[in-house]
Amino acid sequence: MDFSMIISMIFAFVMLIMAFVLDKGHVAALLEPTAAMIVIGGTIGVVGMSFPIAVLKNVPKVIGIAFRKHKEDRQEIIEVFYKIANLARTNGLLSLETELQSNDYDPFIKDGLQLVMDGTDPEIIKKILETKLDNMEYRHSKGIAVFEAAGGYAPTLGIIGTVMGLVHVLGNLSGGDTGALAGSIAVAFIATLYGIGTANLMWLPIANKLKELDTDELVTKNMMMDGILMIQEGGNPALIVERLKGYLDDEKKGEEIREQ
Questions:
Q1: Element housing 3 (H / E)
Q2: Could you tell me if 188 and 165 are in contact, meaning their C-beta atoms sit under 8 angstroms apart?
Q3: In this structure, what are the phi and psi dihedrals at residue 24, rounded to the nearest 5 degrees?
Q4: CA-atom Rg of the chain in angstroms
Q5: d(CA 230, CA 20)
Q6: 209: three-class secondary structure by DSSP
Q7: Separation of first and last alpha carbons in the chain
Q8: Could you tell me which of 111, 64, 69, 102 has the C-alpha nearest to residue 206?
C-alpha cells in the first residue's frame, strides 16, 4: 500500500475537522445523512450514467492501483538490459530465449525481445510497441476520467442539496421559530460542504495520482523500448547503459550501474 497517500488523505480530513472544532463547532453538526445521500449517491448515479459498464466495473481495480505502491525501479531495469545486452553480444540473440523463460521480466520486455529474436524489422517492432503504449494510455485515461467526472459533479450536487434544503427552510418560515430555521439553514449548507469536500479531498486527488502513475509508467515503458531497439542494433552494453541513464531521476543519475 502507498501509505503516504493514505496518511495524506487522513491528514487533510483531520486538519479540516480540527479547525472546525477549534472554532467551537461540534463534529456531530457535520454528520448529515440526507446530504451524504444527495452528494455521494447522486455522484455515483451521474457517473454511472456517464460511462459504459465496461469502464465502471474496473473502478475498484483502479482505486486499488491509486492506493498501491508499485513504482518500477528504473535503475534495476537498466541493470537487466546491461545483462541482456552482454548475453546477446556474447552468445547471440537466440541465447536470450532461456534468459527470458528463467526470469520474471516485465511482459513488455519479454514481448519486445521475442520480436527481436524472431528477426522482426526494427521499424515494425517500434510500431508494435508504440501501439501497446497507446492502448495502455487509453485504458488509463478511462479510469482517470471517471474520477475527474466525479470531482466535477460532486460540487454541483452539493449545491443542488443546499437548494433543496433552503426550499424546505423557506417553506417553513411561517413557523416563526428563528432558532430552528437557523439550524435548518446550517444543515442545508452541509450538502455544499460534502460536495466540495469529496471533490477536493477524494475524487480529484485520486485522479491526479492516477495521472502521475500513468506518466511514470509511460516513461518507464519508453525506456524499455529504447533498450530493446538498441539490443537489436547490437549496441555496446556500456552505451546502452549510458542511453538509458537519461531516464533516471536526477538524484540517481550519478549512481553506478552494477555489472552482472
A1: helix 3-22
A2: yes
A3: 70, 20
A4: 27
A5: 59
A6: helix
A7: 31
A8: 64
